[in-house]
Amino acid sequence: MTVVWIKQSAFFICVRHNSKYFQMRTKPMQITPQVHALQHILQTLRQTRESGEKASRDWDKLPGILAAAYEDLFIKSYLHDTLGALLSEHQANPEGSLRQWRLLDAALQRLEYLPCWDDHDNMTIDAIRSGKIPFDAIKPFVRHPWETYEKVYQDENEKCRRFLAENMDRIRQNVEKNKDRTCLPFEYRPGKEAVQHWVRKNQAVGNVQWLMALLHSVLPEEARLWIDVGCGVGRIPNAVDISLGPLQQWRIIGCDLQADRIRRANLMATRNRKFFPMRVEDIIQQGVMGASSPGLVSMFEFIEHLEDPLRIIQSMAQLGCAALLIGTPLEQKWRGEEAGDPDPIHLWGFGRQAVETMMQYAGLALFFSNESRVGAYAQGLDWLSVCAVSPSVRRCINETQRL
What we know:
The chain contains 15 helices and eleven strands. Helix content is 47%, strand content 15%. The radius of gyration is 23 Å and the shape is elongated. It folds into two domains: 33-116, no CATH class; 146-402, 3-Layer(aba) Sandwich (Rossmann fold), CATH 3.40.50.150. It is an alpha/beta fold. It has a seven-stranded mixed β-sheet, sandwiched between helices. The protein has a two-stranded antiparallel ribbon with strand order 1-2. Strands 3-9 form a two-stranded antiparallel sheet.
């Protein structure tokens, strides 16, 4: 059976190709005649630029050819920022400009990498094409062939193994101490960590803490279970302070299919924390924590790494979780019109509407969303948090509001 390395959260995992929501790329996207026509006229414009010839007629043809290619809303989502900027720049500078040529090169580069996407049985791409996810609320990134990502993730795995081997004595010294701690709060390390990333992690912890406190009042005791999917080394689960009121009665686990990450997470584990190298479905089906369904499922810095994020959101909803909390970069590369190089690790950029739409598509009721512009002021990524709950939990919350 084929095995492929696929990104999970900030770490990679090994999954089989017949997994429910992690799919190996099986074949390149088929390029339509309309996209071929678009590629041809852009190449013609580049050739005329290089020869110094005037190409006013070709520029006049471009909007019509573009409209035909944009009948596929996935193509429109993939290209509209670059080609919209290109047309605006040409209108402002019909004789040409340096930025115009950079945009033209970026568009051609994006088209060159388009076959790296696989649209076969991809729920997210299908939802964009059908208009369920607005094309301008989600951004498919320029991406490498899958083999390139496989190499990156294998290198990361080797790095994790070396870290454990080199630091095991120091790590073991804290194992017993951590077991008695109610949390391991994040410490900001100037020069070693971006401040916007530290803020994002603390926001995730804060959201989890108040959600657990709220859900405590509407869930039966056996459902007071939080599962962090793609937990990596368990930093966020370990940072939640269980000394806060009802949080003491919750069970907390993390899951990630990367065994070395889980090994390190368990060595760092604080009170009431357990970590498993398995899928969340297997944790539930095997009764690892004695719950038929989790009260809270979280996915932080996770869905942007997946080929088909809508599929896993639907899978989590089908588990019967009371609440699903997602944290992801907000509108990453939204203004990257001149970007033509493949992203080294992320596959998607999301606006708030895209994540909300995917949660509603999965049958969940929106509960809250938050856009944090920390990256805009701290030279990094902004942050999006969206939470949705099951319809029954939504009704319970509404009932308590009326009391």
